[in-house]
Amino acid sequence: MIEMNYPVFGECQCGKIKFSLKAAPKMVIACHCKECQKLSTSAFSITAIVQQDDIDIEGELHETSRIADSGNTNIGKFCSGCGNRIYQLNPAEPTVIKFKAISSLSDTKMVVPTTHVWTSEKQSWVTIPEGVQQFEKQR
Q: Where would I find the CENP-V/GFA domain in this sequence (predicted)?
């Protein structure tokens, strides 16, 4: 377990959106699906699963929506200034926040993926550390 002092503060790239994480994430996931590769403009995206009560977000967020392969609705909240994705949620589970801006916090020691999903779509050069849980698709 990583020792952290909460809350931890952060902001989007342009500073219009500010956030504080008040407790440790329930889980940190690296997603290798093609949608997350587009979203992150990288090989994968990092998501921290947090409870709604464990995060405070200030600033005006804009919203996108799409239907995931699972059939669930995925709402994305982002900054209108810089476009940084701040979080996502499934309206059927509004208390579970998929915090995308985890790497923008002032202290990122907790940003260590414990699970990798959609490894069936990962870039061939990405090596997942031994012993880390992984799934070929979303579980």
A: 8-136
